Amino acid sequence: MLCCMPGVAFVPALLVGWSSAAFIISYAIAVLEGHVEPLVPYISDTGTKPPESGVFGFMINISAILGVITMYIRYLLIEKQNESSHFVRSSCNMFSLCIGLMGCIGMGIVATFQELAVPSVHDIGALVAFGSGVVYITLQSIISYKSCPQWNTYFVCHIRMAISAISCIAFIPMIVFASQISMTKIDWTPGEKDYTYHFMSAVCEWTVAFGFIFFFLTFIRDFQRFSLRISTEIHED
Q1: Most CB within 10 Å of its CB: which of 5, 7, 77, 169?
Q2: DSSP code at position 47
Q3: Average pLDDT across the chain, whole number
């Protein structure tokens, strides 16, 4: 089905499908193994202990690579559209790409340095991933509005901005509640100390994560009208 998509629409579709599967599969294994409670654990909690840690690390690293590819194609698409419309500065487009790539690096850190093994590095990676991700989708929403009505419909722009706003709103309490937690653990149970902070922070984390997924889902239609061609030239002396 992905191969039948026109242009390069299969790239964001694969990113969305793979990332969703990474979250869901890791969560399912962690719950079935009894490593986390079913009620809204942190995403990282579902990838801390084996066997789910191996699945989580592998799949999130692949998601980071797919994210890099998607963001770079998005950058090229805007540059191509900008040649005729001049709706955004090239430097702004490049800045957005750099912010997005920082988020992908943060994802790689999260996948590589597990929560209980190296908590400080893991937390920095998570902060970079979520923080850069929120900034990236917000910038892309603004760029989308600037490209209207030639390259985007206002309906799509409204959806992107709504997702960005929800992600931004959820990101702030995610950090605030997480900062109030006085211990690092994954086996949370209702009623214990700091559980409320953990629960609220985890809800916000899942909201932001799936906000990213739904945002990239809106790229599929844009990518349908863009194709990459590789040309080779042979020079004879």
Answers
A1: 77
A2: G
A3: 91
Q: Which residue has the tokens 């942190």?
A: 42
What is the token pair recorded at 99? 């912010």
Scanning the chain, the segments in alpha helix (DSSP H) are 10-32, 52-85, 90-112, 119-146, 154-179, 195-217, 219-224
Which pLDDT does position 7 carry in this prediction?
75
How many C-alpha atoms does 104 have within 13 Å on its Cβ side?
19
Instruction: Give the total number of structural domains in the chain.
Output: 1
How many CB atoms lie under 10 A from the CB of residue 137? 28
pLDDT tens-digit series, residues 39-71: 999 999 999 999 999 999 999 999 999 999 999
The predicted structure's pLDDT at residue 188:
86
> From the CB of residue 33, how many other CB atoms can be counted at a distance below 10 Å?
12
Does residue 231 lie in a domain region? no
